[in-house]
Design a protein that fits this description.
The structure is a homodimer. The first copy, chain A, has eight helices and ten strands. The first copy, chain A, is α+β, with helices and mostly antiparallel strands. In chain A, helix 1 (2-9) packs across helix 2 (15-24) and helix 7 crosses helix 8 (182-194). The first copy, chain A, binds a DNA duplex through residues 146-148, 170-172, 180-184, 186-187, 189-190, 200, 202-203.
Chain lengths: 210, 210
DNA sequence: TTGTGGCAGTAACAAAGGTTACATTTCGAA
DNA sequence: TTCGAAATGTAACCTTTGTTACTGCCACAA
């Protein structure tokens, strides 16, 4: 685990902190599609992402869903941070977008390190900043963009995260994450295909140029 | 200023910290409608709200606007925190919703206090948590609610912030903050009036029961 | 091989929200 | 007092998005 840590976090944390994380953290591997946190769960440890990607989703009372953002290598979950500190229930759902490796750190440590390590404080604050920025981008999308533009952004984002021009999603799955209906997505995807920007297959979409 | 501080922050900060804030902070009064921060500004100090209310707005490239949330007594601006630390430009606009009194703390101090005072750390983290939560609520509204429901929420919120059943806004102003058009707001307000939930006047709206 | 369930294509229609246009009212400044 | 700008009311129409319904297609298991 120490190697994993050094590879991904040595530019952020001093050796003493890396050592501590190595001592108290536990390595966790999850498969694509696995659920990490459900809305209402209490959170007892904080994830540091080594590899893979996690998607963070919001859901309303009717079960309508919305993709908020992705976490990647070197990230942590800002929601978790506050849940830990405040002993509050999770407001979001976290699912593995890809096969993912993370280090789980017990919550007591995170407070202790806040006083002890400047690099840890910066990391935590930086994480908050990134998450707030991503929330702003999400708000921009749903407030200012039409569904066709949101869809294009979604596909671009997905490509960036998976590093693959083939997106393995059904229209229904995309519709859930954008909180719309399958028919709408099919309609817009077909339009993009007619423009030559994507190619449609069963269970997958190939990005030509977006 | 020390009295202001003690009245509003003594339950959060230890005496030594209150003392420090008192030494380095400057009192600032702004009038309703004053602009505090514009998008693109560099932020050099951090506000602690003593009284009044600040509204935080987002704008896109076309000048379309959206109200994100309000800051009240005891709050600080999480955006500012990260802007300060990262030396980044502001992503948002801040306007005084009411006459407001705040204490401005220079940014160098905030880092110093992070290491020195546990109560400061908790305050900063707590602020982030509240802001993230409010961003989530904003997302819920625009993603899951129709305009009529968003309008009702907006009016309720406004009432809560101003502690007044009379809302002094034009339809155009409301339309800006909800990123829609004046005609749409007039239409929906008239519907609410017909339901007996509000009463409409020139430049103001009286809330009967929402 | 055949049936079954999930996936995608598409048409027709409905609803919400945005746009344009114009009339009326109100208020403050000249 | 009068004029003009700003605020509001309202109709007609358009666009976007959501809904319903039905089709064919594909993959897999019985």
């Amino acid at each position: 685990m120490l190697n994993n840590l050094k590879d991904n976090f040595s530019h952020l944390f001093e050796d003493a902190l890396l050592e501590e994380i190595n001592n108290v953290g536990t390595l966790k591997e999850v498969k694509e599609g696995d659920k990490l946190i459900e809305i209402g769960d209490y959170v007892r440890s904080m994830p540091l992402l080594i590899s893979g990607a996690i998607k963070i989703l919001r859901e309303d009372d009717n079960g309508d869903e919305l993709l908020l953002y992705f976490l990647e290598r070197g990230d942590t979950c800002a929601m978790t941070l506050t849940c830990c500190l405040g002993q509050k229930k999770s407001e979001i759902r976290a699912m593995a977008e890809l096969d993912t490796i993370l280090i789980m750190v017990p919550i007591q440590k995170m407070e202790e390190w806040m006083g002890k390590y400047k690099s840890w404080r910066n990391f935590v604050l930086q994480s908050y900043h990134e998450r707030l920025t991503e929330m702003l981008e999400t708000i921009d999308s749903i407030a200012f963009l039409n569904m066709d533009e949101r869809l294009v952004k979604y596909l671009q984002n997905k490509q960036k995260i998976t590093k693959d021009t083939i997106i393995n999603s059904t229209h229904q799955e995309i519709a859930y994450e954008l909180n719309t209906s399958r028919v709408v997505i099919s309609r817009l995807l077909k339009k993009l295909e007619n423009l030559g920007e994507i190619e449609l297959f069963r269970n997958s979409i190939k990005i030509i140029s977006l």
